[in-house]
Amino acid sequence: MGRLTLVLLLAACSGKGKSTGEAHISDSGAGPATSADGGLTAGSGATLVTDGPPATGDISVRVEWTDVPVKGRASPGLTACKTPRAAAVAPTTTWGIPDVLVFVDGATTPEHVRVVLADCTLGPRVGSARTLVVASAVGQPRAVSIAKRGAIEAVVAGTLDKTKGRTIQLPIAGHAVTIALEPGAVYELATIDKPSETAWIATGAAVTDASGVATLASLAPGEHAVTAWLPPRAGQPARVGRGTVTVEAGDVADLTLQLDEN
Questions:
Q1: Of 65, 154, 156, 162, which is the most exposed, with the fewest CB atoms less than 10 Å away?
Q2: pLDDT digits (tens, 9 = 90+) for 48-67
Q3: Tell me, which fold does domain 57-261 have in CATH?
Q4: What would you report as the CA-atom Rg of the chain, rounded to the nearest whole angstrom?
Q5: Which of 211, 250, 261, 243 is CA-nearest to residue 103?
Q6: Boundaries of every domain in the chain
């Protein structure tokens, strides 16, 4: 074996397992191409992979209402269909609160949410989307109303626009109406019956799940203000929780908010 060959073999062995820290080439079949100056390029069959952390981070927000009073957990009576009305909240055993809207600047809004009228109820009770689809699961003609209650900041502060909403006719089961929603606004959807049942829809928000947790993804690094808003319903007033959290790229920041009366 010649001296030159031995030197090349040693150089190849010493390079195994080391990373440049900037980029590497993942070979999917064909060997990487060589540039005129001897460097590697992402040629045919090769993929250039850039190292480095993600540019965004996520937030996991848990919303709690400790020691929810009995009136908040109990049915306030019967619907117009003579069925029990849903309570204002259904807390978990550790006081996590589902169906709360969580607002963070820069949050991604889903494309659409579908709210269904079934007998005298609307479900889901809370949603976030750019487009609202209202559908009927009732055989006979029914109607619901929709009203813009104001910008997010005003609604959370307790200032709701009381203007009468417009009526949406739902003539038969399966009929659906699609409505584009304004950015940064909160809407109330209500049955025409008395007592009316409501659903609240907002843009730029997340909704807490059955355990009281909402996840907001792909947020810019830095400090973010977070607001949780439980809409007024079942005879109970709205409640609000506020806090701040610092987002780091490639990480999930945890925050717990306690709901207080507005």
A1: 162
A2: 455 566 799 999 999 999 99
A3: Immunoglobulin-like (2.60.40)
A4: 27
A5: 243
A6: 57-261
